[in-house]
Amino acid sequence: MRKRITNQGAGSASLSNRQWLNVEHLAQVEVTSEAAAHPIESALIPGAGPGWRAEEPGQQTVRLLFDEPQRVRHIRLLFQEDERQRTQEFVLRWSSDGGQSYREIVRQAIQLQPSRFYQRMRGLLMSISTA
């Protein structure tokens, strides 16, 4: 029998060391709402701020419109709740025809709890390419 012991924290470290797309230069972003202190740039540009937050409650859409087709293999989402316990549903879709139709990649509901130290991160591995 061959056995190997792996570090359970290695998955998070390897996600942070990946080569991420420079969305600032490769795409335009559309949002349905954003709070002035939490613009979408602070979620998409590393080190640019505390992350994105909608101005109004309810369903929100963040859409990335790439200038050229891109190969996407990893998507990292980080959810943080500072005020109340709630359920957050998110849906990821992609389009290979300029937004005429969309294919759902994942739909998931996660439980969030208020805490200084509580965050939920989802690292999704996939292969999406129109190139």
Topology:
Blueprint: H1 10-16, H2 23-26, E1 27-31, H3 41-44, E2 62-66, E3 72-80, E4 86-94, E5 103-112, E6 119-128
Antiparallel strand pairs: 1-2, 3-6, 4-5
Outline the structure in words:
This protein has two domains: 39 residues, no CATH class; 63 residues, no CATH class. It is 11% helix and 37% strand. It has three helices and six strands; from the N terminus they run ααβαβββββ. The chain has a two-stranded antiparallel ribbon. A hairpin with an 8-residue loop joins strand 4 and strand 5.
Quick gist of this model?
With 131 residues, the protein is mainly β. The protein has helices at 10-16, 23-26, 41-44; strands at 27-31, 62-66, 72-80, 86-94, 103-112, 119-128. The longest helix is centred in the N-terminal third of the chain and has 7 residues, at 10-16.
Runs with pLDDT <50, length 5+?
A: none
Question: Strands of the biggest beta sheet: in what spatial order?
Answer: 1-2
The class by helix and strand makeup works out as mainly beta
Q: What radius of gyration results from the CA coordinates? A: 17 Å
Shape verdict:
globular
Major β-sheet profile = 2 strands, antiparallel
H/E element sequence: HHEHEEEEE
Portion in helices: 10-25%
Overall number of strands: 6
Q: State which percent range the strand residues make up.
A: 35-45%
Oligomerization state of this entry? single chain
**N-to-C span:** 43 Å
- By DSSP (H or I, 4+ residues per run), the number of helices equals 3
User: How many distinct folded domains?
Assistant: 2
Q: What is the arithmetic mean of pLDDT?
A: 80
